[in-house]
């Protein structure tokens, strides 16, 4: 199991994402640092928690098609492994993000057109560098109904996996930042049982390490977390004390792209 901290960027600064209501997002207030720029937040995650893989939700790109490419470059230059959701709509978009130093691109259901193009993305960029995000709002897929064969989340995931995806995020944005628990647990359980070779990642509403343990028990390999880190609900002592319990082992970490220097960490 890995904890992957999330950085939401809007107007160039890190904001607190709450329930997908982007017009209400405000600069982050964190117990970790008074800074709000992406690099400072990422450095705090690494220095205070030992977490070196960062999920960047680039809302400037998703909403306004204004990607923060310099941020990706700055993070990569500081030896972070950076997963970027930049509202991808084409293979060219993905290649541009990778050219800026991203370790992997996130093709989000909210903006990605259809499964056939997803297959082309996997062929072009490689399975290890493509993550598909099954974006939901209160359980309903945020998908173009003309681009996908079904409006059922499980069937969309199946379609993405058939397109060649081996890493899958399941995220219900209606629960992000609310601290009410992870609403995708049952869907994740079904996906884990049906597709045991797919690396499964989820998040949205993580309260504490008990939530992380429960997700690990149903086969989830990684958890996206932001608010619980910024609030102190999850701290380094808890992570270190609980590490032997929730650590999934080297094989799970390898599937998530962990490098050998991080092999002893939860990240």
List keywords for this structure.
alpha/beta, 11 helices, 267 residues, 11 strands, disordered C terminus, eight-stranded parallel β-barrel, TIM Barrel
Instruction: Using the 3D structure, state the CATH architecture.
Output: Alpha-Beta Barrel
Class from secondary-structure proportions: alpha/beta
Query: Cα distance, first to last residue?
Result: 8 Å
- For the record, the count of structural domains works out to 1
Series of H and E elements: EEEHEHHEHEHEEHEHEHEHHH
Please state the CA-atom Rg, rounded to the nearest Å: 17 Å
CATH class: Alpha Beta
Strand order across the biggest sheet? Answer: 1-4-5-6-7-9-10-11
CATH superfamily heading: Aldolase class I
Proportion of helical residues: 25-40%
**Overall pLDDT:** 87
Question: What's this model, at a glance?
Answer:
Helices cover 36% and strands 21% of the residues. It has 11 helices and 11 strands. Helix 8 (209-217) packs parallel to helix 10.
């Amino acid at each position: 199991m890995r904890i992957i901290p999330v950085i939401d960027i809007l107007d160039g600064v890190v904001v607190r994402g709450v329930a997908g209501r982007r017009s209400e997002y405000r600069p982050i207030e964190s117990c970790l640092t008074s800074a709000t720029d992406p690099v400072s937040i990422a450095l705090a995650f690494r220095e205070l928690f030992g977490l070196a893989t960062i999920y960047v939700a680039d809302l400037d790109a998703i909403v306004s098609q204004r990607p923060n490419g310099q941020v990706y470059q700055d993070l990569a230059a500081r030896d972070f492994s950076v997963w970027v959701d930049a509202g991808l709509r084409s293979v060219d978009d993905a290649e541009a993000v990778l050219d800026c130093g991203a370790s992997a691109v996130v093709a989000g259901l909210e903006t990605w057109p259809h499964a056939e193009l997803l297959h082309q993305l996997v062929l072009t960029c490689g399975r290890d560098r493509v993550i598909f995000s099954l974006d939901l709002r209160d359980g309903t897929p945020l998908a173009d109904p003309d681009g996908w064969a079904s409006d059922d989340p499980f069937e969309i995931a199946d379609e993405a996996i058939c397109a060649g995806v081996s890493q899958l995020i399941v995220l219900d944005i209606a629960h992000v930042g609310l601290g009410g628990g992870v609403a995708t647990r049952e869907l994740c359980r079904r996906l884990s049982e049906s597709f045991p070779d797919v690396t499964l990642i989820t998040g949205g509403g993580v309260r504490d390490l008990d939530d992380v343990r429960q997700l690990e028990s149903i086969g989830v390999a990684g958890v996206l977390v932001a608010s619980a880190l910024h609030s102190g609900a999850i701290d380094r002592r808890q992570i270190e004390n609980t590490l032997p319990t929730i650590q999934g082992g080297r094989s799970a970490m390898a599937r998530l792209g962990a490098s050998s220097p991080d092999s002893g960490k939860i990240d």
